[in-house]
Amino acid sequence: MSSINLWGYTEKNFQKEKYPLNETLFALGNGYIGTRGSFEEKSDFGGHDGTFINGFYDYYDLSYGEKYNGYPDRSHAMLNVTNGKRIDIYINNERFSLEKGTIKDYVREIDFKKGILTRRVTWISEKGDEILYESERLVSFYEKHLMISKIRITPLNFDGDIRVVSYLEGDVKNITKENDPRIGVEFQGDELKVLECKIDNNRGEIISRTKSSNLGLICLMANNIKCGDQYDSSYEQNDKSVSHVFNIKAEKNKVIDFEKYIVYKSYKNELNDNLYSEVIGIVEEAFTKKYDFYKQKQKEFIDKFWFNTDILIDGDDATQQGIRFNMFHLLQSVGRDSLTNISAKGLTGEGYEGHYFWDTEIYILPFFLYTNPDIAKQLVNYRYNLLDSARKRAKEMQYKKGALYPWRTINGEECSAYFPAGTAQYHINGDIAYTVCKYVEATNDEEFMVEKGAEILIETARLWLEIGHFNSKGEFHICCVTGPDEYTAIVNNNVYTNLMAANNLHNAYKAAMLLQKKYPAQYKKLIDKINIEESEIDNFEVAANEMYVPYDEHRKLYPQDDSFFDKPKWDFIDSEDKHPLLMHYHPLNIYRAQVCKQADLILAEFLLGGYFDREQKMRDYDYYEKITTHDSSLSTCIFSIMANELGLYDKAYDYFGDSVRTDIDNLHNNTSAGIHTANMAGAWMSIIYGFAGMRVEDGALRFSPHLPNQWNSYRFRVSFRGRIIEVCVTKDNTEFKILHGEPIMIYNEEKSIKVV
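^ thats the sequence. predicted structure below, dont judge the formating
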């Protein structure tokens, strides 16, 4: 029988050297609050404890040796906020800590079905006092502002004094810049200023405000203890922390139960009485309903999630655990309020400063779109809510019309100080437009297209007419851009960018025609709002049809861009032990060679597969595979998907293996800084788009399933146009079944079938 926990991740022996990594792996979140999996008690094992609020950030100024027009003035970063987790325990005046004493037995587990982190330790102090320590922690999906810790202490061989000290700590800091540009910020340590600390009547609170972004945060705690009448309590506070102290006369084998309710609420502008009363109400309600109520609500929420989302794999327990780990963390990390998004590291660490990237649209959103479309809608709404900021950014870049979405952001401002791998990645406009259309296609939500989607499509399309041009032959060219492959920067006619731009332009034209014919009042309102001429809309279709896409007739290959094949190939032997390349070489040395961090042409052939025939895809795959480093965690899943499409099944599984357990096995040696959310979603894509061959083309759902040799079968569910469809793939056949909704016609291996 397998020892792998199929519905969780378990640490059976405490290894202090893995503590920083496990802070990430055992992180909990609900899309609003995220907290790293550090112990309740104060510890010093080299980790970096952190609690984060999605969308809660501060600014810092960007400095340049030479600053030009359009360079961002400032960046922002997600802040480490008030620490509400800390609970210290003293056993006859000895502090409970795994840094000393003896660990008799130990187990820690995150349960994907319950959404709870548990720990159980039998510990013997240096004086010989033995206790059983048990803890549970949840970050509530039912009440997004609430986190609860529950601990149980059982003295096993003594009567004596046990002291429990529950803290709120406002003196918190972010990781500062290190040599790795992906980790750390340029903060000085005073970005979250404590305005008020107080504790009385079993309620502690810290009110803080950011230094520059003027965001406020309230953190409250209330504590509940059950140990009979043999205790007294007191309060302590200073300028940056408060604590509630419980002194207990403990008896051998008599259990002490302790519950801590922590509420976080961020806000803009000033704190008013209504908001303050709302937060008080949340903590009082939690204190009244108690832990078991929220534990049950947690399970109910996650049960629904798994009903829609779970993938059942027979024959590969490591992969089964890995894909569930990934999907669980995606749920924990994603904003569901249309005001926040999902960052590259989720809410598990400070890597990439908590910024949102194109990762959301191309990798993460498909996962939610075909499992939990209501969440997908909120992610698309987030981009609509940033449309004014994108228009402003276009003007900052001296464009007269249109919208330019930021490469990396939290509040809608561009945060990338390095334009060759930031602002130059104009493809983010095409990525967002692509997703708008995919969302509407998968949900039939035409109302969204009319009210919001068409405006996104048209404003992003306008920008292509601003940055591109028609040459003397009438071809539409787009110069000086960077595609998804960040090892090839500032090029002309990047194939991925040009094709996504053409797709954007064509769909903007189609959306305008839809509104013009079917919703004339809304169309008139929209064109008046954005001040666009009908001739400009006509030009969208002209530019789309005349989009130039470079092609090498001699090689019968698509170059990534105009000049790609003119460069020498990278010396992979000399750089074999120097990955990622960006940490070992000056960018110019990388840009001068044929080398890919991820092959964006292969991504284009996946997203826009109808543009290429199978033979072309095979030739391009063979060529680009040899020059791709996969230094990006976004790379291997796409190579896996396309290998499946091309019948390269062994390669497909190998690449999938590099994706599905990236974080749980720390394959990139940087998971301690946070999970890789796009890669996690990419592993789901590798199964659904790869092994199952799912595509949505012209509104039709298509499958071309393959069963990996390593599996006996696999089963999954997809949401599509109001239905939940279950797909089961075995060695002998593929079965489709409607679990919710009306029958539907789909395609399996090009054969039309009715699913009921």
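The longest strand covers residues 256-268.
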